[in-house]
Amino acid sequence: xxxxxxxxxxxxxxxxxxxxxxxxxxxxxxxxxxxxxxxxxxxxxxxxxxxxxxxxxxxxxxxxxxxxxxxxxxxxxxxxxxxxxxxxxxxxxxxxxxxxxxxxxxxxxxxxxxxxxxxxxxxxxxxxxxxxxxxxxxxxxxxxxxxxxxxxxxxxxxxxxxxxxxxxxxxxxxxxxxxxxxxxxxxxxxxxxxxxxxxxxxxxxxxxxxxxxxxxxxxxxxxxxxxxxxxxxxxxxxxxxxxxxxxxxxxxxxxxxxxx
Length: 260
Ligand code: ADP
What we know:
Radius of gyration: 24 Å
Number of strands: 7
Oligomer: single chain
Distance between the termini: 64 Å
Order of helices and strands: HHEHEEHEEHHEE
Bound molecules: adenosine-5'-diphosphate
Mean pLDDT: 88
Number of helices: 6
């Protein structure tokens, strides 16, 4: 018998191709499992909120006409839970649409002005001091303006929710990147939990956050935005002292700037 070469490949090439193929399948399987987990977590979160609304609606039906106290509590809670559900569904839609990265147009964005606008926009909803620190007059980068504002709102909203004192935004740049840091002096995060806060639906203490209105989707959206901008995001925190979120964004986007 003669040895027949398979498709012109030798044994080494074949085993290399098999390894690559197996790795691709593993990655596909992981991504499929993570999508399944996401759908199941989202359903669970929405279902919990619905059950709470249903509970209060039942209380209203049974005792609402006679008991003023129950009436007030139920109406207030139903309102709060529907607000929470609305935030969550909007955030889920944002996360889903952030998978289609190329749909968002990029433009030249001046980051210091953008931060000032967001800070001014948030002023009516809190009584805290948010200060911007920078040594530069202007810092420009290729970005989607709406997404940059959304990123800042998420980070400032967290800083406001989990701190009682002042909040600082530090902005700087080098020849390639822009560095944005949002720093608060609030409750901080236990060391072991920091790496998990960018996971979807992860909350450091879930009971605490039903009160603060958190959903556990803010930081995953912030990460999706920085990923789409080819940047990075990370968090440093000391429990009881405060938290700092550090974002790095490239000044120039590669291969995808329709207006430049
Ligand atoms: P949430 O809507 O719950 O704030 P996020 O994804 O934005 O969801 O944040 C995830 C969790 O990380 C929060 O529930 C909170 O426990 C923690 N966290 C985020 N930002 C801060 C911060 N600035 N200080 C303390 N804890 C924070």
